[in-house]
Automatic annotation (TrEMBL):
GO terms for molecular function: ATP binding; ATP hydrolysis activity. This is ATP-binding protein. The keyword ATP-binding applies. Residues 47-360 form the ATPase AAA-type core domain. Keywords: ATP-binding, Nucleotide-binding. Pfam families: AAA_21 (PF13304). It comes from Cerina litoralis. InterPro entries: ATPase_AAA_core (IPR003959), P-loop_NTPase (IPR027417).
Amino acid sequence: MIVFFKVRNFESIKDTLTLSFLSTSISEHNDSNVVLKGRDELLRSLVLYGHNASGKSNILDAVAFYRWFIVNSATELQSNDEIEADPFRLNSETEKAPSFFEMCFYIGNVKYRYGFESTKERVTKEWLLETKKIKEYPVFLRINDDFQIDEKRIPGALGVEKRTRKNALFISACSQWNVKKAQKIFKWFDDTYTVHGLMDNSYRDITLELLENKKYSRLINRFLRKADLGINGVNIIDIKLEDIIDFVPEELKDDYKEKFKDGNNRAVLMSHDKFDKNNKKIDQAHFLLEKHESEGTKKFFNLIGVYVKAIIENRFLIIDEFDARLHTLLTKAILKLFNSSKVKSESQLLVAAHDTALLDKRILRRDQICFVEKNKYGSTEMISLVEYKPRKESPFDRNYLDGKYGGIPIIEDLEELF
């Protein structure tokens, strides 16, 4: 579970910005939205609000890049490849300075604090610390090519520093060289899901994999029925590419052609009730998901597997455009699922949204709602709703739209343009 994530000098983020999953002393939803982990009481979800171009996506991109670099830097980059961490470019001091990333998290009962700094050319600093009981101990420290490694705390790591490229992380190289502690950390990040809510097709295979597993098939079908989409069941069939290619988004056509290159591939068939002239149910009608169902239904189906695996396997899930193409009540139901006292899970959810109906005190605590906006220098800043100290009975959604919490656009009268 995540305690906090910090980022500095990345895309629109100039100064250190902290995403904190530490709960505050407020008394709301303590039995459901908060999980006790070690000595920390951690929030099960955070929701980011802000107008377009405020930097919400850049915050999620920072977490996604941090994860990607840990998982891929040792294997995906060549020695001369640039590190794709774009610094804040609206200030002459930061555009040549390194970007900073750090996360504090639990794996099992061990608490780690891991971070790094990097320019486009190299990793300039890297560190891993672990907490046993109360005290924090350094596992390794790196400044450019100088390494300090406590071999008792990370057995097998000594010598890997000589095999670590300047544009790769030591923790990633250690994982490749079978250092067990590094592999454990690597796997935790590899299991994290980072989803863009408008590009959900790539996650459909996870749902299909669960659907073909007898252990989860019934759960997936119940998930669909509970969403009130008019769907009674779902099956997987073989189908030819030409039967659905016209209905595939343009940017995904090449992917589909690759999947269907052997002639046939899996397609999703949805079952709906069929009625006679007296409106008596007589049969089931079947519709191809890609061809006949709505965009919202497609998105919900594509991400069911991600929701289920995150909860069952205690994964961290990040979703940008969380509410895109979904009805408010369905989005609320998903948010409620990740904050339910009935669901015993250590999964955590981080999302960016626009739908103000999610600002619902029946679902979220005040410290789970964060507002994002840019200051006059173009730098993204974030503040938690709890810092405004609103009363419990305050209408959070109305106050937000009234501008009391920031994070909203100031839109002039567009009619005057005409």
